Amino acid sequence: MDSSDLEAIQVRLERLAQNHRDVTVKYIYTELLSGLLSCRLLRTTEIIPEPKKAWHMEYAQNALEHAEAAMWRLKLSHPEFDQMMAHAERLKFELESFRRA
To answer: What pTM was computed for the model?
Structure first.
């Protein structure tokens, strides 16, 4: 293998690593936003059967846990981290408000 092959492999690995990071960032946002959507459905829809309410609560809690676990393993820029934390805090607040009700 000559140096150009090694450089090509290195470039591909760097692209793969960046693609993995981008997908993980999108996954975290998707988890947080889908958890918030579940909470919004609970808050705005008056006629939801109790089993569905429990499902939405559990879904939102799991979404928060999965997002937080992924967040702490990823090197994020300050704006990304701040935005994700804002979503996570909002989701925690929503979940707490349902638990207190």
So the answer is: 0.85
